[in-house]
UniProtKB/TrEMBL annotation, chain A:
Keywords assigned by UniProt, alphabetized: Signal
Biological source species: Shewanella nanhaiensis
Signal peptide: 1-26
InterPro entries: DUF3019
Domain of life of the native organism: Bacteria
Protein name: DUF3019 domain-containing protein
From TrEMBL, chain B:
Keywords of the record: Cell outer membrane, Membrane, Signal
Pfam families: MipA (PF06629)
InterPro entries assigned: MipA
UniProt similarity note: Belongs to the MipA/OmpV family.
Compartments reported by the entry: Cell outer membrane
Main location: membrane
Name of this protein: MipA/OmpV family protein
Length: 139, 292
């Protein structure tokens, strides 16, 4: 059991590392004929709302029908596997303050097929609050 | 005096009888501050603060600093410390400290006079009898001798802000924290900001209530100063009324021109003290400021 968990984590880390080199990965993904998309792609936080609470939709296409698994670095969904090769989407409720990386792998071979990232971005404006005294209130 | 108080009370409270959508906060950098960043600035210019104490000089003003730091809840603003208990769109409630402004008339280096330059007679001089009293009496009243020290103190209490379309209503209640006079002060202040292109005009009307302990500590006469006036002048709680205008003209990102004018009508209960020879105090300042 422990070994399985260890292997799963190792696979996840390995997959995330591969996805880090996006261009290389994109080329490989194209070669494998697999595509994974997330909608929405961005979540913008502002003001006091620093957490993204939203429902994301993962969709995938494979040139060759195959059962897949989705791995992520989102702690509430480390791994999800499709029951068969007909599944092509997954909706997921997430609550996060950081980016989430999703990776699609072949369920049987554990071959990495594609990856996508949900990006969490804070508005560029600095956080401000009301000032309670006039700057020149020393008078 | 009473008409001025009535007028001020009306001006403060009548606009709030008609509530509407509140203004968008942070229309300019005078109303808001960046969280987690020091706001530092210094003003250069000339101004004067009149001193209502008899035989005490007015206070010239050349340099004025400003320094503030606001966290998510705590804040430090020009020497005062506060903690925001509640902050909503339409109101804020703070625990905060404030200065005792009355001590500034007695001591040159009181925090309220910080960075004000000039050679003032802040020694405890002999204070002649109140002029108005002299007119009413055939026999001259005895002089007040050298004054004992009137200490500065911090006040601490609740500070509320109510934001409306008609401006900001600020209500505060604070008590002596350093056990100097054990008195209480309350304030009602109405503020209205009017931004016009590069100009910003801030109008304020204020009512400052001081408890009997505050009035007695600063304006009462000790036995050692004058046994006669110690008995003749009995302090009572008092309500001062003031108006303020603060004008900014934004020249560049860092440089502003500023003009300030303050006028306070001192309550009769204080003005009757033999230590005073004026029933009002005024401040003006014209200069340029640099915000870092």
């Amino acid at each position: 059991m422990q070994i399985t968990k260890f292997i799963t984590r190792l696979l996840l880390l390995l997959s995330l590392f591969i996805v880090g080199s996006s261009q290389i990965f994109a080329d490989e993904a194209d070669e494998l004929g697999a595509k994974l998309t997330v909608s929405p792609e961005f979540c913008i936080t502002s003001g006091e709302q620093l957490t993204c609470d939203l429902k994301v939709l993962l969709e995938w296409k494979n040139q060759q029908p195959r059962a897949i698994c989705i791995l992520s670095d989102y702690e509430n969904m480390a791994k999800w596997c499709a029951e068969d090769d007909k599944a092509n989407s997954l909706s997921l409720n997430v609550s996060t303050t950081e980016d989430i990386q999703f990776v699609m792998i072949d369920k049987e071979t554990h071959e990495t097929l594609a990856g996508v990232k949900l990006k969490v971005t804070q508005t560029a404006e600095p956080k401000v609050r009301r000032r309670f005294r006039n700057p020149w209130s020393l008078f | 005096m009473n008409r001025l108080k009535l007028l001020s009370l009306s001006a403060i409270f009548i606009p709030f009888l008609s509530w509407g959508d509140i203004d968008v906060p942070c229309e300019n950098d005078l109303e808001c501050i960046e969280v987690g960043q020091w706001d530092l600035g210094i003003a250069f210019g000339y101004g004067e603060r009149s001193n209502p104490l008899k035989d005490y000089s007015d206070i010239p003003i050349y340099l004025v600093p400003t320094f503030a730091y606001y966290g998510d809840s705590w804040f430090f603003d020009n020497g005062n410390i506060g903690y925001t208990l509640v902050e909503e769109e339409k109101y804020t409630l703070n625990l905060s400290t404030s200065f005792s402004t009355d001590s500034a008339y007695f001591q040159r280096w009181d925090p309220s006079n910080i960075f004000l330059a000039g050679s003032n007679k802040f020694e405890a001089n002999s204070i002649a009898a109140n002029g108005r009293t002299l007119l009413m009496s055939e026999e001259p009243k005895p002089d007040v001798g050298p004054l004992e020290r009137r200490k500065f103190t911090y006040l601490g209490g609740l500070d509320a802000f109510i934001y409306t379309r008609a401006g900001i209503l600020n209500l505060s209640l604070a008590h002596d924290m350093l056990n100097v006079h054990q008195g209480t002060e309350a304030r009602a202040k109405w503020l209205y900001n009017l931004p016009v292109q590069n100009w910003n005009f801030e109008f304020a009307l204020r009512l400052d209530w001081k408890s009997e302990e505050v009035v007695d500590y600063y304006y009462g006469v000790r036995k050692s100063e004058s046994p006669y006036w110690n008995q003749a002048y009995q302090a009572k709680s008092a309500l001062n009324v003031g108006i303020e205008l603060t004008t900014h003209y934004v020249m560049t990102q860092h440089w502003d021109l500023i003009f300030l004018a303050r006028y306070t009508q001192i309550a009769d209960e204080i003005a009757n003290s033999p230590l005073l020879d004026q029933d009002h105090t005024s401040t003006f300042y014209l200069g340029t400021s640099y915000r870092f």
